[in-house]
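Lab notebook, design round three. We kept the backbone fixed and only want residue identities now. Task for the bench partner: fill in a sequence for the structure below.
Input structure tokens:
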């Protein structure tokens, strides 16, 4: 399978610059790279983005994350491999990613309070940005039909 076109972020040079700035901000937010990848993996699983699922799994493997943790992301509520903070981040990821499926508040107060118990404002900012940028890439890849295993750049 071949993508319909090159990723728009690389077609428009200011697009990749902006995305690079977002990732720089995320990395300054104080959340671990592993948490960024776990959250990205969960959002990509929900959105069915095979290119992003593949990339996040590959990044987690390269970082030394256990196969139990990687495989457990899809069933994180039942899997014993995650901390309370990671569970809160994964719950936030699901709420934000499934925003269209909700009536009422996209992120209920109880969930927000739980996440805020584990992360300070900078960390929350990084977490929200990584969820948002992952969802953006999932939608771009779905539109252009980016295949798994693509090397960007």
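Proposed sequence:
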């Amino acid at each position: 399978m071949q993508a319909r076109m090159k990723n728009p972020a690389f077609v428009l040079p200011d697009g990749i610059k902006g995305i690079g700035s977002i990732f720089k901000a995320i990395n300054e937010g104080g959340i671990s790279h592993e948490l960024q990848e776990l959250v990205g993996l969960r959002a990509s699983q929900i959105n069915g983005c095979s290119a992003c699922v593949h990339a996040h799994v590959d990044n987690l493997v390269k970082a030394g994350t256990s196969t139990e943790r990687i495989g457990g992301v899809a069933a994180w509520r039942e899997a014993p491999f995650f901390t309370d903070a990671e569970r809160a981040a994964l719950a936030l990821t699901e709420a934000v990613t499934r925003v269209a499926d909700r009536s009422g508040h996209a992120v209920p107060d109880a969930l927000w309070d739980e996440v805020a118990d584990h992360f300070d404002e900078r960390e929350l900012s990084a977490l929200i940005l990584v969820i948002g940028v992952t969802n953006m890439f999932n939608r771009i890849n779905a539109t252009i039909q980016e295949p798994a295993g693509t090397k960007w750049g």
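Keep this in mind before ordering anything: The chain is about 65% helix and 0% strand.
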